[in-house]
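Entry under discussion copied across for reference:
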Amino acid sequence: MTKEKVVIGLSGGVDSSVAAYLLKKEGYDVIGVFMINWKESTGTLTAGCTWEDDVAFAEMIAKKLDIPFHVVDLSDFYRKRVVDYMFSEYEKGRTPNPDVLCNREIKFDLFMDKAIELGASYVATGHYCKREIVDIAGKRYYRLLAGTDTNKDQSYFLCQLNQYQLSRSLFPVGHLLKPEVREIARQQGLITAERKDSQGICFVGKVDLPVFLQQKLAAKKGNVIEIEAPFMERKNLAVEPANFSKLCAPFPYKPWNGKVIGEHNGAHFYTIGQRKGLNIGGYEKPLFVLATDVVRNIIYVGEGQDHPGLFRQGLFIPTQDIHWIRPDFYMADGEQRDFFIRIRYRQPLEKGRITMRPEGAYILFYDKQRGITSGQFAAWYLEDELIGSGVIA
């Protein structure tokens, strides 16, 4: 009987290493492939491992497991589809999530195409999430579930995958806890057993963001304006629940709403909720970014992590930016449904209600949310299943 062929994305880390081992143990014909997606060092911090280190570890794992090993260079596509998108979004004053884009555009698109060219039935990764197959009214659907390890669950990063991509995907470590993964690696003598997890931007690593962005975006001096909490308390007037556009929109700050307290080097280098990089002292509590205005080149800040300007009742996702992992849960104009929603990785799920309108989806939370940020992804769940997602306007 011919074994099913699986291409595993070997990253040089412990998760993909153990994923490869488990696949081989289950009887798959496993091929290890390392993706080169970023070769440059501008803006990267020296503490991060280079891709040359990663490919060396990946190759050693492949030799240890006695599986074929290939290297594929997708760096040109990664620049066009992920990094250029990042630059474009920051230039508009938005904060993109390159990890979500990397999975949608690279790992489960271009890389998946390469795997299929090699005759593979599936692509496997070391993501902490699970896939299940269900039949509803005679139709097959693929469910994307949160990983068993709630501290490592990475389903959010896969929130833009579609049914076809899930049909071709395997997540061998999704049912394991991280300590269990490391223990398997130790037992099997895998060199990655104690290797630290990668951090920072997918395939780029930890970066000094302003330096990284200055490859395309010029630094330019602008004002930092403080918005005092009493101003927000006066302006946060009651709004009718049906007025979704006001409840879900960021507050439209103006320069005369506050006072100038310093300068910055470019509003597009900052994001909502950011604390570091302001370099303004003399306050009892830390300052946080409340909003950025890239047209006027202004940053609005407030004192303290509980500043009311950091909190919003809801968010809006334009129709063209809504994505349903489960198309059978599609919501039509006028429909409302409660979900558990996440607006950033590692954020606890928060209960909210999605209301569909012709222009898009309005999401109102039962409790105000801190740091809702334009350009990030909101993902909605039913229990532990990820149902859909969209880009926050």
